[in-house]
Amino acid sequence: MPGGLVKTMVSHQYIDRVSGRVFTEPLYADQLLRLVYAAPWEDRSWILRTVTSARASQLLGFLNYDLPFGSMLWGIDRFVRQLGVDLGECIESAERLDSPRKLFQRQIRYWETRPMDHEPDRVVAPADARMLVGSFAPQSSLFLKGKFFDFEELFGSDHPAWLTAFQGGDYAICRLTPDKYHYNHMPVSGVVRDIYELHGRYHSCNPGSVVAIGTPYSKNVRTVTVVDTDVPEGTGVGLVAFIEIVALMIGRIDQCYSARRYEQPLPVTAGMFLRRGQPKSLYRPGSSTTVAVFQSGRVGFCEDLMQNMARADVESRFSNGFGRSLVETDVKVRSTIGFRRDCVMAQEDR
After folding, report:
1. Measured by CB atoms within 10 angstroms of the end CB, which terminus of the chain is less buried, N or C?
2. Which helix (H) or strand (E) holds 103?
């Protein structure tokens, strides 16, 4: 049993990238999820099948986000304050964001509030999220075998070309909490070579649940988009897999790429050119996870992300459950998380 809930009965902290401060994450429905995922093994199977089914996830989503009395009972103002949402960055007025679902699916003036470095070698964060980086390569210091996902299971065993292409690659895990802006943006520029969906469950993204169940991100429903960046106007970091993973109470992932702001959204299809920093998809709603996978040796991650991961003075459920320091950094969408590897090597030589 990976980690177990006993080790994860601690607070979960993360580091804010902008301020460098350590914060404790409020874990929604933590006690209930702890009970579900800590059930005895002889009982857990049917409990998890029930709780993580599509029907249960949709029902929970409806009860939490769609019932009219939800806003009246909690009061939307109190709900906003509890989540810590900055309504000032939203496109719609506070009066129009009058339900939990509308709040979770909000659009923001990202071109003003989420500035992006336009240097062509940059790789940017695909979401407002808590981030960890890792590697599938055993010789890497970032090697994390079978902790968050199984490599073959993540891509699907019936996609051998991508399993070969990303063997030994590196990845960034972006965990979106319920308070986050829930659009995904492109971390790189390039041409879509493939996009496909994989069936699965709706496991929670609560850190304790992740540790308890083992490799949940490759067991959940997910969409895989493979982008070739070695094309004209591309970022030049090889193939990049963009994997959007549902979680408990996430009804679906809408593919809605916009080349300018949120205008004229289009479904993502093979052959499309997707530009870095632009909206690609929307989770409806709740918490969820996005994973960007890079080919071996093509991307170097920012040093602060790796240093933060190794912090022993920050209490992380991932660190406690997996037996090594794994501290998340809270990042903003479109902020730089890495560089094209040849540029990193050139900088190191200087």
Report:
1. C
2. helix 100-104
| Six token digits for residue 32 | 């209930």
Give residue 288's region: left, alpha or beta (phi > 0; psi -120 to 50).
beta
Q: Are 335 and 302 spatial neighbours (Cβ–Cβ below 8 Å)? A: no
Q: Decide if 314 contacts 132 (C-beta within 8 A).
A: no
Distance between CA atoms of 21 and 192, rounded to whole angstroms? 38
Q: Lowest-pLDDT range, 1-5, 72-76, 117-121, 200-204? A: 1-5
Q: How many helices (H) and strands (E) does the chain have?
A: 13, 16
DSSP, collapsed to helix, strand or coil, labels residue 23 as strand
Strand partners, 240: 227, 294
First CA to last CA distance, the chain = 46
Q: How confident is the model at residue 55 (pLDDT cuts 50, 70, 90)?
A: low
* Domains in the chain: boundaries: 13-349
User: By the 8 A CB rule, do 134 and 318 touch?
Assistant: no
299-301/13-16 β-pairing: unpaired
How many Cα atoms are found within 13 Å in the side-chain-facing hemisphere of 223? 19
Task: Report pTM.
Answer: 0.85
Residue 317 has what DSSP assignment? H
Q: How far apart, in whole angstroms, are the C-alpha atoms of residue 74 and residue 52?
A: 26
CB neighbours (10 Å) of residue 13?
18
Work out the number of other CB atoms within 10 angstroms of the CB of residue 86.
10
Q: Which two tokens stand for residue 85?
A: 């949402």
